[in-house]
């Protein structure tokens, strides 16, 4: 936890897995909440950004409060004495998952994640890989045992999204929930849409 006189802070890591838009949208939603964000975008992520979007690295950096070079192991976020409220890796590649699970701190993103775990702060990993083989699942279990929350970006359809943007926003908002940060515009499940559907379910299960 951080001292009360420090602003809310979240570290956002963006790796080279497909789905860099999740990290970008996270920066935007966190800014709306008034959260100070510390961004680490890896070299592979910069390549994926160019492949998947029309965004530039400068565009992404503008949405963060502070940006750190992925090779800068002397950055503030590399130390547990620097107060932050948690970390989100969106998207998280299997390579990064493996490094985090094994405390292989060869870059700032992994070091910051390792520090987050050792300080008992929330770490959410939006793992972007499918299908999964046994090795992937073992790494996921290992990271979870260390305290990480594994949250693959699986879209929810109960909110009846009408665009990819809505699905991305809802998925990221749920990841922020896992960090203890509720976004006011996130769609929430409020129960069955009609009593008839409830009655039908009961009769089927009777």
From TrEMBL:
Any one Pfam family match given in the protein's UniProt record, by short name: Flavoprotein
Start and end residues of each stretch annotated as Disordered: 187-206
A Gene Ontology molecular function term of the record: flavin prenyltransferase activity
Keywords: Flavoprotein, FMN, Prenyltransferase, Transferase
Protein origin, superkingdom: Bacteria
Xref: Gene3D superfamilies: Flavin prenyltransferase-like
Catalytic reaction list: dimethylallyl phosphate + FMNH2 = prenylated FMNH2 + phosphate
Binding residues for dimethylallyl phosphate: 158, 174
Binding site for FMN: 16-18, 42, 93-96, 128
Keyword match Flavoprotein: yes
Enzyme Commission code: 2.5.1.129
Enzyme class: transferase
Chain ranges of the Flavoprotein domain: 9-178
NCBIfam families: PRK06029.1, ubiX_pad
HAMAP family found in the cross-reference section: ubiX_pad (MF_01984)
Family, as annotated: Belongs to the UbiX/PAD1 family.
Its biological purpose: Flavin prenyltransferase that catalyzes the synthesis of the prenylated FMN cofactor (prenyl-FMN) for 4-hydroxy-3-polyprenylbenzoic acid decarboxylase UbiD. The prenyltransferase is metal-independent and links a dimethylallyl moiety from dimethylallyl monophosphate (DMAP) to the flavin N5 and C6 atoms of FMN.
Protein name: Flavin prenyltransferase UbiX
Organism: Saccharopolyspora hirsuta
């Amino acid at each position: 936890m951080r001292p009360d006189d420090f602003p809310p802070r979240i570290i956002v890591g963006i790796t080279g897995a497909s789905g860099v838009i999740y990290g970008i949208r996270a920066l935007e939603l966190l800014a709306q909440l008034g959260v100070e964000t510390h961004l680490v975008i890896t070299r592979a992520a910069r390549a994926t950004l160019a492949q998947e979007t029309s965004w530039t690295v400068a565009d992404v950096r503008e949405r963060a409060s502070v940006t750190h070079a992925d090779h800068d192991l002397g950055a503030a976020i590399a130390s547990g004495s620097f107060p932050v409220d948690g970390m989100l890796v969106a998207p998280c590649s299997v390579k990064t998952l493996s490094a985090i699970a094994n405390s292989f701190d060869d870059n700032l993103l992994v070091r910051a994640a390792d520090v987050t775990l050792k300080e008992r702060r929330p770490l959410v990993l939006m793992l972007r890989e499918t299908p999964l083989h046994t090795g992937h699942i073992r790494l996921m279990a290992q990271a979870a045992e260390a305290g990480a929350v594994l949250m693959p970006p699986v879209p929810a359809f109960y909110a009846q999204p009408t665009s990819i943007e809505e699905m991305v926003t809802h998925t990221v908002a749920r990841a922020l929930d896992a960090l203890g940060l509720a976004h006011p515009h996130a769609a929430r499940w409020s129960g069955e849409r009609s009593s008839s559907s409830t009655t039908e379910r009961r009769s089927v299960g009777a």
